[in-house]
Inverse folding.
């Protein structure tokens, strides 16, 4: 990524305005958003051969903090630096992400820092979560029973005449640097939407919300809903499933000509904790597809019947 995009506003200590403006950030995708114990939000997007951090006190004004994890820190990777996700645990920060070596097969790993701004250091000469196949989009869920899970995607692999990706879950060991037990397959593309067909059947970018004992496993996948990529969810009473897709998926789609490819999101709460926000990327130009992306933010919520909804995408 080049200079800080013009849409990135300076941080402010004044009272937050009641609105935000889309796009939140240009030349960025796959936002991982951390609400940290220092009272700030940190956003970590995909954007080149490094991971940069942006901070905000109010989800409206954002400041560029600089490079949080340099590509040079990863001796084993030189491409596909994708989808960072940071969690805070006992005063340390853990950045999960995927990256690939010359073979182009993405692997998940984790780097550690004393600050949400980095620098994040990688503790090994190799990726820490090598499942022997291409894997991307780690999302870390800290359950209230003390267990921590990593949801991730087995990246596009050949199945008959097409490629598809599947969502898995694995419990993490207490040090967060390895998995405990065998990963479990949670969702194939046909379990995400009514029908899945075509040469590329995505099912990726997972995110988990837990409310009133229900686990909402959100994801981005193909659908026949006007555009090829949208956000939906499935629910379960257990973190490890089985998950049942929501009948009225998608909950975030792109019905406009000006925007498409709404997906790979994070969910975070407003500073007062009363509202939920979804931060996601869109394709700037439908003709260019995923090659040109930017970040949006919109309000979302849980309806009285327990279903998720998004008030968006909004264009400004
Ligand atoms: O940005 C690279 C990849 O594209 C992500 O890992 C996927 O989720 C998709 O957004």
């Amino acid at each position: 990524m080049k200079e800080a995009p013009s849409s990135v506003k300076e941080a402010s200590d004044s009272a937050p305005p009641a609105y935000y403006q889309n796009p939140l950030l240009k030349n960025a995708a796959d936002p991982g958003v951390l609400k940290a114990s220092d009272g700030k939000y940190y956003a970590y997007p995909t954007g080149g051969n490094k991971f940069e951090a942006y901070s905000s006190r109010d989800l409206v004004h954002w400041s560029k903090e600089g490079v949080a994890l340099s590509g040079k820190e990863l001796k084993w990777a030189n491409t596909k630096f994708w989808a960072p996700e940071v969690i805070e645990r006992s005063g340390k920060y853990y950045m999960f992400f995927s990256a690939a070596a010359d073979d182009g097969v993405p692997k998940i790993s984790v780097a550690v820092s004393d600050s949400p701004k980095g620098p994040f250091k990688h503790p090994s000469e190799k990726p820490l979560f090598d499942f022997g196949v291409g894997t991307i989009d780690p999302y870390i869920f800290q359950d209230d029973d003390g267990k921590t899970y990593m949801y991730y995607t087995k990246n596009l692999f050949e199945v008959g005449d097409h490629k598809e990706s599947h969502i898995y879950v694995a419990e993490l060991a207490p040090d967060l640097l390895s998995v405990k037990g065998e990963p479990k397959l949670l969702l194939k593309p046909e379990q995400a939407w009514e029908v899945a067909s075509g040469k590329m059947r995505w099912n990726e970018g997972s995110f988990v919300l837990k409310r009133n004992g229900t686990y909402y496993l959100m994801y981005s996948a193909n659908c026949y809903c006007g555009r090829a990529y949208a956000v939906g969810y499935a629910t379960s009473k257990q973190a490890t499933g089985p998950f049942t897709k929501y009948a009225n998926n998608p909950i975030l789609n792109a019905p406009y000509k000006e925007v498409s490819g709404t997906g790979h999101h994070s969910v975070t709460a407003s500073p007062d904790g009363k509202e939920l926000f979804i931060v996601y990327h869109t394709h700037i130009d439908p003709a260019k597809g995923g090659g040109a992306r930017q970040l949006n933010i919109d309000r979302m919520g849980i309806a009285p019947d327990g279903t998720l909804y998004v008030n968006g995408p909004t264009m400004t």
